[in-house]
Structures are given as C-alpha cells and as structure tokens.
Amino acid sequence: MIGLRAHWRGRERYTVFATSCDAGALQDAWRGDADRPARLHIVALAPDLQPGFHRIPQADPRLTLTSVCAPLEEALAQLGAQPDAVFLEGVTGTAFARPLARIVALGARLFADGLDAEQRAALQAQGFVFEGESGHAVFASRKPRLPMPPTPERRAIVVGAGLAGSAACAALCARGWDVTLVERHPEPAMEASGNLAGIFMPLLSRDDNIPTRLTRAAYLYALRAWEQLGGIGRAIEGDACGVLQLARDADHAAVSRAIAQEGRLPPAFARWLERPEAERLLGLPAPDGGWLFPQGGWARPGSVCAAMLDACGARLTRRFGIGSIGLERVDGAWLVRDGEGKVVAQAPTVVLANGVGARGLAQSADLPLASLRGQVTHLDGASLPALPLVLCREAYLTPAANGVACAGATYDLDGDPLLREESQAENIERLRNLVSDPAAAEGAALAGRVGFRCVAPDRLPLVGRLPDFAAAGSTERLRDVPRHPGLLGLLGYASRGLIWAPLAAELLAAQLEGEPLPLEMALVDALDPARFVLRARRGSRAPAPGLL
Which residues of 265-287 are buried (b: 16+ CB within 10 A; e: fewer)? Predict the structure, then answer.
C-alpha cells in the first residue's frame, strides 16, 4: 500500500478499481493514514453476486464500496468513474487495455503483477508508462480527459418529504451536506408514501431487460440500506416475511419455469414453486404455482421515511406546511418561494422529489409525468385467510398487522381523492380470485386510502439533472442536452417507490459528489430525465400520416 498512500495523499476523493480486492485491507490502510483522502471509493469485480453493479452501504459514509459482477471489459465500459488507481490480477488477453485507458484519470497508478509481454505492450500503446520491469505504471496519455467535477458546495434543498425526498435527505446528509427539506403538508409521507403497507419484491423476465435489471439493483440495495437503518420489523414497521407471486395462468407458469431452469437465480433471491409446494406453503390453492421471494415482504412507507429522516441528524432543517411553491434562480442560487412570494429556502442545489407536484413548477412542467389514482382497501384480518407471507398476482394482499390487512390497489386515470365503492368492489373481487374464496371479505365496510402515483411514459423513474427543454435545440445525445444548473429530480417512482427510493437517492448523491456510480452507465442513461428531450425531438421528426 506504500505506493498507493503516496499517491492519494491530501486528495479530496480517490477511486480504486480492482479485478480482485481485499476491500477491508484497503479501508484499513485508509483509516490508518493521517494524510488519507477525505473520501475513498472502491470498485471491485466479484463473481459471487448476481449480474450488475452492487453498491454495498458502509458504516462510514466517507467510504463507498461497489462490487461488480461482469466480465472485465464490460465492467470497464459501464463504469461511471475515473479511477485514480487500478489493481489488475489474473487478467487474460489484451482486450481490456483500450477500455481501461478510456476511463482512468490522467496520472492514474497501475499495479499489475504477472502481466505477459503482449499485455504490457498493449497497455503501453494506450499510454501507460511502466517503471522498469515491474508491473507498476503511470497513465500518461496526451489524449484529453474529461475534467473531474469540482467539489460541490454541500448545501441543498429537497422538495417533498415522501420516500423519494426522505431518501435524498439521508444520502446527502451522510455525505456532509446541509439540507433543507421543504414539504407542502404539515408532516412527511402524507401523499403516495402514506399507505399502511407497501410491498417489496424484485421483477423477473426471460431476457433480463432494463426494467428487470434496474428493479433487481434497487431491491438488493434497499434491503442493505434498510438493514443499516435498523432493519424491517425493528426500526422500520413491517415484516420481511417473504412474497409469493402466483402465476397468472399455465402460460405464465411455463415462462417462469423456463427462467427457473436456467439456474441463474440464487434461491435466497427467487425460487420457483410448483403447485404442491406453493400450496403447502400458502395453505390456499395455487393452481399454477408461483415465485417465492424469501427476502421480500411489506413495510409501512411512513416508517421508512421517519428512519431515513432521523438518520440525517442536525444537518437536516425541516420546513413543513409550506403549501404551493415556486422556484427562481438568482446569482447562482435557487430560491424557493411560498404562495405569497416569501423565500422559505435558498441553496445552490435543488432536488425535486415531489412527484406530480413537479408539473406545477415552470422548470419541470415539460416533463411527461402522469398521475394515477390508487385506492387501497383496508380489511379486518379476521374476515380473510391467515397468510404466512404477502400474496400477489394482479393484485396484492398483505398479512394482517394490528388486525388490518391491505388489498389493492386500483389504477385509475381520474383525480378523485375520496374512497369509492366501485374501487372497493374491484379490490375485493381481485382479492377473492387471489385467495380462491368467493366469500372472502363478505360485507366489508368501505375503508382504505387513496394515493396518487407519479408515472413516466416508460414506467421508469427520472433520476438526475433536469433538462432545459426550451434550450435543447437540435440536441441528439444525452450528454449534450442542456440542463437547469443545480436542479435535479427524483420522480416517477410509480408503484415501486419503496424500493426505488434508496438506490435512486444514492445515484443522485454520487452524481453530485463525482463518486463512482452505483449502477452501470446503460442503466444510468435509462433513468436520465433528459431522455424525454431526445424522444420528443425524435417524435417531432416523424412523418405525417399518409406520407409513408
């Protein structure tokens, strides 16, 4: 570690990429060095995880650890970071040299033992200068490098105190930011995050598509982040009792069975159950089997918000009961004004985490966000079969907690905030199909809650710097889309806010800090709010009907 310590001395941040790495030893070396960098980021390959990037929360927020399960060349191509040091061990071939040179910082140190002559030559051709016959080198290419972002002024305003905003506050405060949380209601979690229970589970698909990969990453990160907050069933109200997702029909079961037979899914993550095993577990009919997600379950979103906000400590200032707001950029800072024009908060950075409320602000009004009404039905647990876990298919049913089970939820296009008998009937009908009991919840009183989901056209969240639609012009690439300075969004979580919130906030904070990103770049781009600028432009070029 001697060469590494000399290299990182006195820096604000330092990033290490390794094909294999004893992260604990590296962190110990960092802790034991009085001249250590303020923040250390480690990205290391790990073959024993599911495919993709895995951000592992650390007790010390000045440390980040990202484990990557991917071939070396693929990992380098998807890495959202400029490593300052690279440790290569056991590499084969020379294909890694070019993608490595494309991402490392100028002056980066390379530590690589066991390279053959061909590998050394390939690295030298890309700008690495070796020190004699050792495997140590310095990257000295004259090719231009993208400048590292400057150290930010760590003051921000977060608008919205639901899951998205609470997670943003936690991620930023952990990094030493002073955050003002602005909420129109008098308490947090009073809109879509105010339900009694939200379920958490991953998404599966045969082709492991982008939504599946994103949801898997978010789910796994949420499980780790909640454990760090104190755990489901302890600091957070809920139960990691498991989720059983019943197959819709025989065709769905056949597709699911094919996924299971590929053998890619660890049993602790997802396990396919044929009918007999599913029925033994559930104690109810499961005619086509189902997926068991053993680490899944339910949690009360408001308790998750409270745990995240409590973790912020004194760095968080709460401005609640503000009502409607407006944004104004003045002399490099954002001003948040209430309905009477009074400034209630001021900072260089603003994070919009207020769901469909973002449509009411001039700077984000062009984002294609829709509001979907969802009515959840609350039922007396005694009127239903006792469930050992969460049960779902087209609808979901939670085990009773404090005597109340939750069933739902509807997807309605109107804005009615009141409970409706027809929505209650819809939920109960789907519940009866779920438990195969036509008399379940007979005579249930109208009880429940209505919330409004914020949804984007592609059903993926919007995470990152918000685009300036008016200034976009003929932009063709995401990186060239003009952005509102210091204005970011955490929006469009639809029905998965519970698991989306922690990872999306971690991604946004990493972007602001210039850290390695917790997702591969293809997935980061899929979440970029500026994607809708490019789609709008492509749509405007479509030929008129009849001209094809």
Answer: beeebbbbbeeeebbebbebebe
